[in-house]
Write a structure and sequence with these properties.
Elements (H helix, E strand, L loop, with lengths): L6 E6 L5 E7 L2 E5 L10 E6 L2 E7 L10 H4 L5 H18 L12 E2 L6 E2 L6 E2 L4 E9 L5 E6 L10 E4 L6 H13 L2 E13 L4 E12 L9 E7 L13 H15 L1
Parallel strand pairs: 9-13
Antiparallel strand pairs: 1-2, 2-3, 3-5, 4-5, 6-7, 7-8, 9-10, 9-11, 10-14, 12-13
Bound molecules: zinc ion.
Length: 256
């Protein structure tokens, strides 16, 4: 099952409350008051006062939803817990052996880590920082692009992973130049969002167009253009950081 694949269902509990059970491929998240710790479970935190755990279990769930399709069907807090569960179960399942010497790792009881008993290498949950940037031009138009990975003709901000040795701001300059060929300045951090596909952290920026002609990297970008606030293509849904950046730009335009 690919990373981020995720199934969820509401099931009645003995006392009549609904218990949310998320299945993460071969794993599950149980949101249940007073629930016992599942074997090998990861504590996720409390949601509305109820403890949440992610645990690996066998089997699938009829009528479940994957993490993408769960989006918009539960509130943002629940979805965030679900994403946290996906990342931790996926990390646990992909770090069972030491990356240095191949020995089977063991869970560290006092922190969220796996340790190699032979060479001592510690493995912590992985996070891959990625930048996402809304580029605005002096005439008030913003650059929106259709990524080659989007299954639908949706236009969004540019995004890409931060590379080793790079600052977030350098990543913004490089990604924009690589994907659409232009230069930007006034790179400003705005907000961030966990993005569990499979373990990204999206860092949202705005930037100002500073020169160059659009020249698309067609492996990544199918189409891109400068859009006016009153003439938008299909844009990402609410709850995404892309949409927050776009909505903030629209609000700035409305104030002018
Ligand atoms: Zn080792």
């Amino acid at each position: 099952m690919p990373p981020g694949r995720f199934l969820a269902a509401l099931e009645p509990s003995d006392d009549g409350d609904e218990v949310i059970v998320f299945h993460v491929g071969a794993g599950a998240v149980v949101v249940e008051e007073g629930a016992s710790v599942p074997d090998g479970g990861h504590y996720l935190g409390a949601l509305d006062g109820r403890g949440c755990w992610a645990a690996a279990v066998d089997g699938e769930l009829d009528g479940g939803l994957d993490l993408h399709r769960l989006w918009g069907r539960v509130d943002e807090d629940t979805w965030t817990v679900a994403g946290r569960a996906v990342q931790l179960v996926e990390w646990d399942r992909t770090h069972r052996y030491c990356g240095r010497c191949g020995t089977e790792t063991v869970a560290v009881p006092t922190e969220r880590a796996r340790r190699c008993p032979a060479c001592g290498l510690l493995a912590f949950p992985r996070l891959a920082p990625a930048i996402i940037v809304l580029v605005e031009r002096e005439d008030g138009r913003a650059l929106l692009a259709r990524g080659a990975a989007f299954p639908i003709p949706m236009y969004s901000c540019l995004a890409g992973f931060v590379e080793p040795g790079e600052t977030m701001e350098q990543a913004v300059h490089r990604e924009v130049h690589e994907e659409v060929g232009i230069e930007v300045d006034e790179v400003r951090y705005q907000a961030s969002q966990p993005w569990p596909f499979p373990h990204s952290l999206m860092l949202g920026f705005t930037a100002r167009y500073a020169g160059g002609e659009l020249n698309l990297d067609e492996r990544e970008i199918l189409d891109a253009g400068w859009y006016a606030p009153d003439d938008l293509p299909m844009i990402p849904p609410a709850m995404s950081i892309a949409r927050r950046l776009i909505d903030a730009w629209l609000a700035r335009a409305a104030d002018r």
